[in-house]
C-alpha cells in the first residue's frame, strides 16, 4: 500500500534557513568518498555531515577531520560502533578493541556522537535476554574510554525487523533504560524515525529522553518492503511516517541538533548523488520542517 | 545469519501425549481444503485445527462445522476478522458488516476465538494514532455482537514490520490496553511467537495477560528475511525464537488451550502437506514442549 504522493517544493538554496540543521548521512550517497560527500554538502548548502567509519578509514581520520573542518561542516555523527553480543571471549575482546578505535576516530573527526548498533543474536543462539545483557555489559566496558576521549555513545534502538541479526535494542524505552545507567554526556540515544515510528509509546519515550537525544535521524518506512529488508528505507515523503510529529517531539524534548538523513535504498544509491541531496533538501522542507 | 540446526526427533504418532494440544492452522497447509485439512489432522493424530474464513466459506460454515465435529476435532481459532481502520464511512460500514458475519461464522464452526488483525494505515494516510483509535472504536462496535453469539474476539498484536500495511496493534501491551476495556470472555489476545518474540517486555505482558490469552500461535523468525516479508515465517527450529520460554510463560499465565502452528512460507506451501504436518509435530516436540 503506497502512501500519498510526496509534497514537492522548490529546492532550498545555500543560505536558506530550511537547511540550517540538515545533515547528509554519508550512507545516503553511498558511492561518494568523504571528500566527495563534503563537496556535495557544500554545493548544496548543508551545514553538517554524518560520516561512516569505512570511508573515513580509507583516508584516515585526521585527513577526514581536515576535510570537514576546511569546509566548515559540523559532523553530526560517526557510524558506527557496537556489535557487542558475541559470546566467544576472543570475539568479544576484538569487538571491544574495535569500539575503542571507533571512539578515538569519533574524537578525531569531532563527531557529535558515535552511533552504537549493539548487535544481534550470535550464530545459532536463541538467547535474546543473554544477548541484551552482553550488549549492556559491553556499553559499560566502553563508557570510561568514551569519557576519556570526550565522546558520547549514542545507543540506537533498531526496528524489531533487525532484532535477530543486527540490533537487540528494539525500543527507545529499552535504550533509555540502558543509557540512564550512565552520565548523559557519555551515553545518549538515537531517535531514528524509521526504527521507532511504529512504537505506541514513542512520544512518551521521546519526552523521557530529554537530555539524552544525541542524534535525530530521518528516513521513511516504505511499502511494499523491498526484497532486501536492509535496503528498505525510503526518502521522506515516499512512505508512511509522520515526520513533523516526531520532529516536534524531539524538539519539545530539548533537542536542537542536526537532522540527519540516512537512507539505505538501492534506488537512492543508483541515482546521481547531487540529485539525491537536492531531493533530500526539498523533502526535508516539505515533510520534516514546519508545524 | 541462520540459527543452529533444528533438533530432530521421531515423528509423534496418533495418541502420543506430545500431540495433545497441537493444532494445525489451515494456512500452514495452504493448498488443503477444510475437508483435506481435517483428514490430515486425523491422519497425524492432531486434536485441533485453526480454520480460515475463505476455505470455510467455500463449503459453508455449517458444512465446515460438521466436518470438524464428525472428525472429533476442536477448532482452536477462526482467522480472521479486523481491518477496521478505514476512514471512509462506507468502507468502515462494510468492514463492520463483514466482521459481524465473521463472528457468526466463528459461532457456527465452534471456534475458540475469532482472530482480529486490526488493519494498517489507510492509503495515503500517515495518521497512525488515528488508525489506532479507529481500530479501538471498531472493536467496541463489535463486542456486543460477539457477546450475543458467545464469541471471543482475539486481538492479535502484529510484528512492527506490518504496522503500516496490516496491523497497527504492534505490541502485546498495547493489545491488552485495548482488550481490558471489555470483559475477558468477549475480548482476549493472541500471543503469536513470530509477532512478539522481540519485545523486551514480552514476559511481563504475557503475565499481565492472565485470563486474556485466547490463542497461542507458534512459528519462527527466520533470517535472512525472505523477499516477500509476508511469507517470512519459518518452521519452529529454523530460526531464532526460544519457543519453550514463551510457551512456559503463557502456561504460567494460566493458558491451557491449543498450540496452533501458523506458517506463511512459500517453501512450506510447496511441500507435501502431510510431510509438513509431520515436521510440525516433530518440531513441536523438539522445540516447543519440554522444560
In short:
Two copies of one chain form a homodimer. Chain A is of the alpha/beta class and 291 residues long.
User: How large, in whole angstroms, is the Cα Rg of chain A?
Assistant: 18 Å
Regions with little confidence, pLDDT below 50 for 5+ residues of chain A: none
In percent, how much strand structure appears in the residues of chain A?
15-25%
CATH architecture of chain A: Alpha-Beta Barrel
Q: What's the helical proportion of residues of chain A?
A: 40-55%
Largest protein interface? A-B, 38 and 38 residues
Number of helices of chain A: 11
CATH topology of chain A: TIM Barrel
| Main sheet characteristics of chain A | 8 strands, parallel, barrel
Biggest sheet: strand arrangement of chain A: 1-2-3-4-5-6-7-10
CATH class identity of chain A: Alpha Beta
Count the beta strands of chain A. Answer: 10
**What is the total domain count of chain A?**
1
The ordered H/E elements of chain A are EHEHHEHEHEHEHHEEEHEHH
Q: For the record, give the distance between the C-alpha atoms at the N and C termini of chain A, rounded to a whole number.
A: 26 Å
Mean pLDDT of chain A: 96
Structural class category of chain A: alpha/beta
Please identify the oligomeric state.
homodimer
Amino acid at each position: 500500500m503506497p502512501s500519498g504522493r510526496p509534497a514537492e517544493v522548490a529546492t532550498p538554496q545555500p543560505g536558506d534557513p530550511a537547511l540550517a540543521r540538515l545533515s547528509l548521512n554519508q550512507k545516503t550517497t553511498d558511492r561518494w568518498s568523504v571528500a566527495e560527500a563534503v563537496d556535495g554538502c557544500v554545493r548544496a548548502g548543508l551545514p553538517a555531515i554524518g560520516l561512516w567509519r569505512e570511508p573515513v578509514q580509507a583516508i584516515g581520520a585526521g585527513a577526514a577531520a581536515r576535510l570537514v573542518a576546511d569546509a566548515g561542516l559540523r559532523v553530526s555523527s560517526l557510524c558506527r560502533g557496537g556489535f557487542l553480543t558475541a559470546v566467544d571471549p576472543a570475539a568479544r575482546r576484538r569487538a571491544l578493541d574495535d569500539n575503542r578505535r571507533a571512539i578515538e576516530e569519533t574524537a578525531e573527526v569531532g563527531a557529535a556522537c558515535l552511533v552504537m548498533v549493539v548487535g544481534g543474536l550470535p550464530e545459532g543462539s536463541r538467547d535474546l535476554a543473554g544477548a541484551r545483557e552482553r550488549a549492556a555489559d559491553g556499553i559499560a566496558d566502553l563508557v570510561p574510554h568514551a569519557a576519556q576521549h570526550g565522546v558520547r555513545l549514542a545507543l540506537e534502538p533498531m526496528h524489531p525487523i533487525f532484532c535477530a541479526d543486527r540490533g537487540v535494542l528494539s525500543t527507545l524505552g529499552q535504550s533509555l533504560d540502558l543509557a540512564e545507567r550512565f552520565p548523559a554526556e557519555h551515553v545518549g540515544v538515537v531517535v531514528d524515525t524509521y526504527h521507532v515510528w511504529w512504537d505506541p509509546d514513542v512520544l512518551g519515550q521521546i519526552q523521557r529522553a530529554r537530555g539524552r537525544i544525541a542524534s535525530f535521524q530521518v528516513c521513511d518506512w516504505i511499502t511494499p518492503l523491498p526484497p532486501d529488508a536492509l535496503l528498505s528505507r525510503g526518502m521522506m515523503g515516499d512512505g508512511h511516517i509522520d515526520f513533523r510529529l516526531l520532529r516536534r517531539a524531539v524538539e519539545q524534548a530539548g533537542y536542537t541538533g542536526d537532522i540527519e538523513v540516512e537512507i539505505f535504498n538501492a534506488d537512492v544509491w543508483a541515482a546521481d548523488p547531487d540529485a539525491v541531496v537536492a531531493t533530500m533538501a526539498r523533502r526535508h522542507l516539505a515533510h520534516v520542517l514546519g508545524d
